[in-house]
Amino acid sequence: DKEFDLVLAGAIYHGDKRRLLSVIVKSGVSNTTRIIGFVDQEDVAAFYRSCHVHVFPSKYEGFGLPVAEAMACGAPTIATTASSIPEVAGDGAILVPASDCEALATALRSLAYDDTRRAELRIEGPKVASRFQWRECAKQTVAAYRKALLMG
Description:
alpha/beta; 3-stranded parallel beta sheet
């Protein structure tokens, strides 16, 4: 939709960037698409807080940290049902099957124009993401190491 800019962030390898640019040009959205590449960690939260909709269409994810980060910042998020993402996202994001491009497009169109749903996700996302705290992660990691050492 030409009403919105599509901002693609993250490391993109040279060969992938050429293919991506080709798809963008063929799709007719090249005048509203910006590929910004890698974003410094200190700038990530600002991107999440200012986005209209955050889309994370991952087919594989170890934990889903980008989804948790985006939701913690109040970004209305669409992600996939791949890997651990549903467990991380809970009710704080809209989830679609990882290989279903039409479902992703439908969710994006819907959320882009649904002010009420975006507002709900801006509230619910941080609540869900608050389950993941670095201090708690460190405590659980230490506990796991202690248990492993005692068993070994």
